[in-house]
Design goal:
Blueprint lengths: L6 H8 L29 E4 L6 E4 L9 H14 L1 E4 L6 H8 L5 E2 L13 E5 L23 E8 L7 E5 H6 L3 H7 L3 E4 L1 H5 L5 H7 L6 E4 L1 E3 L6 E3 L6 E4 L4 H12 L8 E4 L6 E5 L3 E5 L8 E8 L6
Parallel strand pairs: 2-3
Antiparallel strand pairs: 1-2, 3-14, 4-16, 5-16, 6-14, 6-16, 7-13, 7-15, 8-9, 8-12, 10-11
Pfam families: TauD (PF02668)
InterPro entries: AtsK-like, TauD-like_sf, TauD/TfdA-like
GO molecular function: metal ion binding; taurine dioxygenase activity
Length: about 300
């Protein structure tokens, strides 16, 4: 059977509805199958969701991390996929210093800068609305997408402006077994243009196409640290499945995109001033809720360079 013939039978056999999501109980596994929960000794952990999202208590991000603290925070990041810190009155340089414990920082030529090229500053007003209210994974148009991001809220609207993250390992675990089998070995093309064309000048986009040509990534990525399989396609940057008829590819991608919409796989974070989120870009998608206009929302983000998905 050719690649472009394999998806429809799987959908029929598993009775996936038109919306792409099956009802009923979910497999909600926070850790790899063979892993046991371990206590944290250097800070408190307050879970916000069953599989994703936890607040870290008792860590001051203005202070340098010891190797032991960095190791425990990394374990928390891998376990919870996104970790949150409240009341962190830190500078942009201290934010960068924290992120560098996980690797070199990357720059993004498509987004507004903060006090350095490594900082993206999102100033959202009624005149300058945000376009991040779509489920996405940061910079998958790069051959080596970001490992993760550290986002700090500088100014918080009085109502709204939450961010939602989805655990894409849980999304993969809950796919019908025959759909999971058919995804093995598939690759998809990622391109920066669909993600930025709504709010960028066409001449600017054209000038960047040689620097950022489309790239291929596996549809199912294996996390380099946990070994878990995660869905690695997203609505902002994934354009089509390699070697598949375009109509069939579109159908499959629409089905995979909506797996991030399942509330059981999500955590929703209500921001407060100087709150910080650190998420694993290899394991999650996120969505910035755009419900606060005409109030102002200002955030600063740094991104950590990653490796090539496999």
């Amino acid at each position: 059977m050719s690649v472009d013939q394999s998806f429809r039978p799987a959908l029929r056999r598993t009775r996936v509805p038109a919306g792409g999501i099956l009802e009923g109980p979910r497999v909600l596994r926070r850790l790899p199958e063979d892993a046991e929960p371990r206590p944290y000794h250097l800070f408190g952990v307050r879970p916000l969701g069953r599989v994703i999202g936890a607040e870290i208590e008792g860590v001051d991000l203005a202070r340098p991390l010891t190797p032991e603290l960095r190791e425990e925070l990394n374990r928390a990041l891998l376990e919870w996929k996104v970790i949150f810190f409240r009341d962190q009155d830190i500078t942009a340089e201290q934010q960068r210093a924290f992120a560098r414990h996980w690797g070199p920082l990357e720059t993004n030529p498509f987004l507004p800068k903060g006090d350095s090229d490594e900082v993206t500053r999102f100033t959202r007003t009624a005149a300058m609305p945000g376009f991040e209210n779509v489920w996405h994974v940061d910079v998958t148009f790069r051959p080596n997408p970001a490992l993760g991001s550290v986002l700090r809220l500088v100014r918080v609207p009085p109502v709204g402006g939450d961010t939602i993250w989805a655990d894409m390992a849980a999304a993969y675990d809950n796919l019908p077994a025959d759909v999971r089998r058919r995804l093995e070995g598939l690759r998809a093309v990622h391109d920066f243009v669909p993600g930025f064309e709504r709010f960028s000048d066409n001449d600017f986009l054209a000038s960047r196409q040689d620097e950022f040509p489309p790239v291929e990534h596996p549809v199912v990525r294996i996390h380099p640290e946990t070994g878990r399989r995660t869905l690695f396609v997203n609505q902002s940057f994934t354009t089509h499945i390699v070697g598949m008829d375009r109509d069939e590819s579109d159908e499959l991608l629409r089905y995979l995109f909506v797996q991030a919409h399942v509330p059981e796989f999500q955590v929703r974070f209500h921001w407060t001033e100087n709150a910080v989120a650190f998420w694993d870009n290899r394991a999650t998608q996120h969505y910035a809720v755009n419900d606060y206009a005409p109030e102002v929302r200002i955030a600063e983000r740094v991104a950590i360079a990653g490796d090539r998905p496999f």
